[in-house]
Every structure is written in structure tokens, then in C-alpha cells.
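Entry 12.
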Amino acid sequence: MLGQSKELEGVLLVDKPTGFTSHDVVARLRRKLSMKRIGHAGTLDPMATGLLIMLIGKATSVSQYLSNLDKEYEGTIELGRTTNSQDADGEVMETRPVPPLTEDGVRAAMQGFLGDQYQTPPMFSAIKVDGVPLYKRARKGEEIVREPRFIRVSSYELTRFAPPQLDFRIRCSKGTYVRTLAHDLGQKLGCGAHLSALRRTATDKFRIEAALTLEQIEQLSLPEIEKRLLPVYEVVPKFVG
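Predicted 3D structure (C-alpha cells):
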């Protein structure tokens, strides 16, 4: 066992399961490592799975740098139904028939979302206005004006065409709401849509293949976990501890 005087430090790649919040993962790691100084770089919605960059010990100091990196996702869009959260966790607001679509037509619609743009965050988000998270206001049925945010979509690819379901792969900048892109694509196709599945597969050079599940972490000893930590100086070369 590691001595009480030695605190772990580094970056741990975790594969978040569905149904967990990012804070749930922090809590599990705090219990496992008996440490309080643990954070993450870039949240994932409870419905989503995949790569969470966990920051252990002094590595929490580089949160802003790692949070600003581009993300890559794979997911599924369900056409014909819109929800108030723009994903499968929300309440269905409208059901519409899916018109005849072609694979080329959907690809062309996706291409229209590429590049620099401003995106209005959804009401069901953790963004705070006057100190109150938007999702709390949304649950009360409130709708308030949100400030559009600058985002960049580098790639948006159709990987499976099986209406009413569309599988996709996307690479985008920090702060991009993929469920909003799914919703907007549905509007563009004339039938509405919501995000039914999402998995983060990469953050910049960090890949999901290198991540550990929470179950795997639970089974490791502290020295074994220490071996899996990425040194902060490798992740952020300019970092000085």
C-alpha cells in the first residue's frame, strides 16, 4: 500500500458508464483513493458514456488546459421525435412522420453544420444564469434567453443510415452540445429528432481505448493505479508542479 504521506498525482483516463454523472465518477475515485483533490476535464451528461479525463492531486491545476481540447464522439440520432432535453432522457414533446430520406441527402444536411458557428445552449444544461443552473429553471417550465456560444464542428460523418435511426461520428470544440446538433439536424430534415445515444471516444490525443472502467479501477491496488497515471508534465509539457 502507498504510505499516507504520499498523494497520487497525474491524469487517469476513465470510461464513464451510462447513468452516472461526472461528479459520481469523482466520488467513486475519492473513495477508492482516499483523496479529496480529484477533478475532471470536461463533463459528460448522465446518458452519455465514454472518455472522462480525471485529474488526480496536483493535476487538477491543468483542468482548464485539458477542458479546452477538441472532443470526438460517436452516437445515434432518432428521427421523428423531439424531446425537451434534446436527448433520450427528456420528455417527448412532438412526434412527426419521417419523410423519405436518402443517405446522400442526410450527409449533405450534416455537412451544413461544419465550421465555425454560434450555438444556443439548451435549457436543460448546467450553465448558470444569475447563479441558477438552467436545467432547474427548465424543470419548472421556464424558458429564458440564452447567450449563443462560439463552437467549431471539424467533422460530422454519417456512419449508419437506418431511418429512423442515424449513427454518426463528430469532432467538435469545447462547449459543443451534440444533442443540440442532433435536434437541429432533425429540424433541417423536416421531422424533428433527438439524441438517443452518445459516447465520447477521444479528447484530442487521448483515446477511449486507453481508459479503464470504474469496475477495473475498483479491482486494482493503489500501486497498480499509480502505474496507470499519466504524468502531468507529459500531458501538459509546460506545467510546473
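Annotation: Residues 71-203 form a domain with the Pseudouridine synthase fold (CATH 3.30.2350.10). Residues 1-5 have pLDDT under 50 and may be disordered.
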